[in-house]
Amino acid sequence: MLCFAATAFLHYRVPASWLQADKEQTQQQIAQRVQALLLDAQEEATQLSGQLQKDQISFSELLSKTHYPTFVYKNGRLVYWSDHTVIPDLDLPPTLRSISTIRNSYGIFVVMPHRVGDYHIFTYIPLHIDYGLTNDYLSSGLQKSIFGKAEVRLVLDNPGQLPQVKTAKGEFLFAVDHGSDRIDAGFDNLQLILLTLGIIFFVWFSISFSRIFLERQRYTEGIVLLLLLLVGFRFTLLFLNLPFLIVETELFDPRLYAASFWSPSVGDLALNVLLLVVVAWAAYYLFHKNEVLSTVKSYSPQKSKLVLGIAMLAFFVLLAILFRFYYGIYHNSPLALDINQSIALERYKLVMYSLMFLHTVALSFFAFMLASVVNVLLRKSSGWWPYKVLLGIAVVLTLLALVWGVRWIPVLLIGTVFWIIILLAAQHRQAISLPYRTYLFFFLIIAVSSLTGAASLYTHFQSELLAYKQKFAFDLMQGNDVLAEYLLEEDVAVRVSEDVLIQSKMKGPYVDAFFIKRKISRQFLPDYFDKYEANILLFDSQGRTLESADTTAATLDELRQKYATARNKTEYENLYLVNDPARPHTRFYLKLIEVPLGTQLYGTIVLQLSLKELLPNSLVPELLAGQQHQQPFRADILSYGIYEEGRLTYSEGEFDYATNFDRNQLDQNELYRQGATEEGFHHLGVSTDSGPTVIITTSKYGAREVLSNFSFLFLYFTACLIVVALLYILLNRERLRDFQPNFSTKIQLFLNFGILLPLMLVSIVTASLVTGSYKKDLLSSYEKKGEAIQDHLSRPTTLEVLPDRNRLLRRVASIAALSEADVSLYDRNGRLLVTSQPLIFESGLLSKLINPYAYAAISERQALRVLFDEHAGNLSFNALYLPLRPDNDPEKLIGFIGIPFFDSERQLDLKLIELITTTMNIFTVMFIVFIILTFFASRALTVPLRMLADKLKHTSLTGKNEMLAYEGADEIGMLVNEYNRMLLTLEQNKVELAMREKEAAWREMARQVAHEIKNPLTPMKLSLQYLQKAIAEKNPNTEQMINKISHTLITQINILSDIATSFSNFTSMPEPKAELMDLGAALHKAADLHTNPASVKTKLRMPEEPVMVMADEALMVRTFNNLLLNAIQAVPADRKPMIKIDLKVDGNNTALVSIADNGSGIPAEIQHKVFIPNFSTKYTGSGIGLAVAKKGIENAGGRIWFVTEEGEGTTFYISLPLATA
Questions:
Q1: Dihedral, CA atoms, 626, 631, 636, 638, nearest 10 degrees?
Q2: Rounded to the nearest 5°, which phi and psi values hold at 910?
Q3: Which residues contact 194 (CB under 8 A, 6 or more apart)?
Q4: 661 in the same domain as 525
Q5: DSSP tag of 569
Q6: How is residue 849 annotated by DSSP?
Q7: Residue 1057 included in any domain
Q8: The domain containing residue 387 runs over which residues?
Q9: Tens digit of pLDDT for each residue in 19-38?
Q10: Spatial separation of the C-alpha atoms in residues 190 and 613, rounded to whole Å
Q11: Closest-CA residue to 807 (of 788, 825, 829)
Q12: pTM (2 decimals)?
């Protein structure tokens, strides 16, 4: 409670002085980091100055001396740069004389100027990068190396009272605005620590409190109390939105995962799953402590069938819950959890997969209990009735699934297969040892969970793909974009025309067209227009173009004449929708925006918006799309065809509809509902009543993908299971020493791991070799494509158009389209001339400068080509640079060719995904197959050993021993031959040994008889001698003495008679006969003889059904009588005898009888003599009873032992093997 109170205090009542101190500390840390960076940059600039004083500019030498983005100007002209991702103004160098912070369209930078002669050095230290949009590849924000996790706003002007960051000399750089008075990360962490401690202490309290009941053997009450406390506490955390209310951690951020009130984040989902594991463990704990299986054994046949059906149905329900759990994760999380789409194991993906494993652990607890119940029920009877029950349940659930949705069919199939395996294992349980059964059961549950997860992901993928295709088709068939038209007219046009900065830029003598375009595209075009490619044209008040653009209209009037026709008009003024006959069902908007430039003077800004095409092997549209407009599937993976009246009118994408699509499918209803699959492709048809039919096609997502996800989950869960097992072994090493598996289990385990490790090693080595080959082939293809582009651009036809930018741009665009690559052309000084993908440079992802390392390699070191790993935001890609020489003349260099392969990482990922999934599939299938094969192999190897062990178990010197028949010359055959030879020797020595034993036995018997007879004879002799003396002395009380001595003699004679009778019975006792008998009936018969409520309290507990064993019934009854009589006689006179008689059947097909008393116990010094013949602690005992009982029980294949505690009592145990049917 103290931890919770402290957390609440820090969240709601933290003193303002603490906040201020925390803000100042944050500001000081930021200042120290900035000053350290400036110091390093100053040293770097000083080294660079020494090189520049020689008036030599060598990129190769300067690059080795610069680590920060550095730009060197000479007489106002850029002559050197060390970075092509930081974007300065190339034409207007900074006019800074001291360290300053500047802001431009691409972010905020600290710029440190340094002058050496005619050279001006400017070193940039990025503080904030602004891409203008956010997606998987681009993320604007502060530099974490400087600001850490601080969420602040940088203020460059009018800092007021805000904390300021200055240089070491006290020069102002920027101010830090923390926003509202919220606790910073330091207090956040403290709150999180306190809250975590509070949770730990509460859980510890709950466990301790419930343990009180558990120690008193009130198991149900203790477990229910524990669950109520934990569930109530979990509900409290959800209701108060903790810990996200106080600490905005990613783990509890709804943006990463949000399903419902019960699971608003990944962290909450983790807590829920952990609670589910606790519930599952609690259920198993009660299942074990309450001895549910013992209760189930007593069920009648009809009740057994009912319980069996309920158990099977319960597992189907658990499987449906697991399916929904998987589907919820896939549906509510933006993470790519499909291994066929991404192999990157990010930390939150690992968290999700680990939660899946924990849910599997919970399932294993429940499934183990259900399977144990079914296993016990099947011991009572055999036949086909369990399969009939399963078939009935499966049929009913299948009918329900057809009503609710076919997506539940995989759940039914998986559950049915699971129960078939369990039923077969239960009916052949003697073939599998208990430890290995548990080992296989865990793998079975892992396989069931993995298959359920893969089926759930398949269902989710199909539903998402179906919805995406339908939306894509409707967008395609829609004639106009109503929302886009409204936003252009009511929002974009108004804001652009009223923007003062745009007006001033268009008025001035120097029109900064690049600034205006960037401002419009980044600030005024909403994210909705990310699906459009935007081109912006500027015209003055006379209608003349203000910049060189790729347009066929040199003036505004010509542009109007071409597009502003009656056919292209929309309901809004100056907004035109242009239809291209060559590309039907595409949209191209033209919006004319008038910008006031003065009195009665208006400039014009023209927005050209065209819907993005499906570009194979191009990542640029995805790279420049905002996060909220990114599609769940890449647009380049699909193709579409448009049919009108059954005739193909237009198609786009890689699929050839004219050749590969069967037009007869257009008449099939299934094509328009769930789609149709044909030759590895999935087609979905979308049509309207009067419009055309659109067929959207993607590659088939089928069995291979499902197997890949199954394999990944199976291997991940197996790895988690191994880690848990290793941790358990490390924490419980004494359990490992006690673990003694049988020979069959050892064979199976060794074979499994003996196959697993080499298979894993081969898979890793193969994957590594093939990955290297993939990379080499990919780079080789890039170089070949680059050489082809270089050859085209080096031809005279290209060099002739170099002065004409428009013609050059068209030339580069055509080559890029043919080669399916993005091509950029740089001049001799490394500045961009034209590019086929201007959006990359206009959006600020790359500057209009060539990679300085490429410039150095080609221009200075005469490299023929160079390939670099480059970055645009978070995207890594390969970029190839080649020299542009006329007719490939090595002496002349007129420019550079840059070919960025933005999809290089994705292409390699696709190759790796294919490789890794194939390897995993092979590995998983082989591993499962080998598990099955090793099971049968171990059985084949151990069957002869079991047979030999069974024969050895019944080998004796008294009975008849049968020889073994085994065909084979292996080691087992040698062992069998030696066994048979031993039997021959045994038979030869049996007669001699029997004679010796008989002689020894009779000698021992004679000695014992002599001893027993001698004991009463001695007092008899003494009494007679005493009487003789009395008669001789004529003692007056002779008659009295005669009576007394006579009574003594009679007593001793009776003792002699009893001794003679006991030994006579022992010598004439027949050999025990092994016959089928009901052990419970014999025990009940013996207990009835000794039941006397007045003198003895007897508690009898045994199952209702017969417990059949092979033994001598008469011997068993005498043994039970002897043990019961001994138990009653062992109780002191001051206690009332309490005898507990128990009969049960354990899991090893063994009947166990226990007879416990509350007597004095057996002293330690005589415990080893209890089963020795003729030993007895009673005056009138012969010592024969327990010896005879031990001999008879051991002949029946059982054993007898006892556990005693002096002063508390003794318990005798008898175990006998159950009779086999």
A1: -160
A2: -60, -40
A3: 3, 4, 6, 7, 10
A4: no
A5: B
A6: B
A7: yes
A8: 291-472
A9: 555 666 777 788 888 888 88
A10: 51
A11: 825
A12: 0.70
